[in-house]
Automatic annotation (TrEMBL):
SUPFAM superfamilies: Acyl-CoA N-acyltransferases (Nat) (SSF55729). This is GNAT family N-acetyltransferase. It comes from the Bacteria. Residues 25-172 form the N-acetyltransferase domain. GO terms for molecular function: acyltransferase activity, transferring groups other than amino-acyl groups. Keywords: Transferase. InterPro entries: Acyl_CoA_acyltransferase, GNAT_dom, N-acetyltransferase.
Length: 172
């Protein structure tokens, strides 16, 4: 794992497949994070992760399809993750889809806002991305509120189950 950035309460590390074998501790933690309520509105491969083998399969998919960042607290306990993938519908590899999730017991503590604010600021300084695009289930008002608070704007091309928000990154 490579340290990506830190905040007052969080440490974020990029996880890459070439960094070697995944630890049993990480594989045991993933099912505790990907609970029914956390993954309720996410794609099928997020659902039903209950064992280390299923966690390994999920991680393999995530590492193949995206850049995956683990979110830890100051005690190095995994609290969630951020994932970045190409916005293929526009064939623009500088526009990225942003996804994030936090363990249910971390909800309501302001961690999502803290995490994404710092992630955006760090990306503006270190990445060549132009836009971040986040999809949010229409019933996930908390995530929509976080994105709007951080400066995302709602896109017109939302669908029946999700709204999409985008943020143009400013380069320093």
């Amino acid at each position: 794992m490579i340290h990506y950035f830190s905040t007052a309460r969080l440490k974020v590390y990029e996880l890459k497949a070439e960094h070697g074998p995944l630890t049993d501790a990480l594989l045991e933690t993933i099912p505790r994070i990907l609970t029914k309520n956390v993954v309720e509105n996410l794609p099928p491969y997020f659902q039903g992760i209950e064992s280390k083998a299923q966690a390994k399969a999920w991680l393999d998919i995530m590492l193949a399809e995206s850049r995956l960042f683990l979110v830890k607290n100051k005690n190095e306990e995994v609290l969630g993750c951020v994932f970045i993938s190409h916005a293929l519908e526009q064939d623009n590899y500088q526009d990225k889809h942003l996804g994030y999730l936090l363990a249910e017991e971390q909800w309501g503590k302001g961690l999502a806002s803290e995490l994404l604010h710092a992630f955006i600021k760090h990306a503006e300084q270190t990445e060549s991305w132009h836009k971040l695009i986040g999809g949010v289930d229409k019933h996930n008002f908390a995530s929509a509120k976080v994105l709007l608070k951080l400066g995302f704007t709602k896109r017109c091309n939302s669908n029946q189950s999700a709204d999409f928000y985008e943020l143009s990154l400013s380069k320093s």
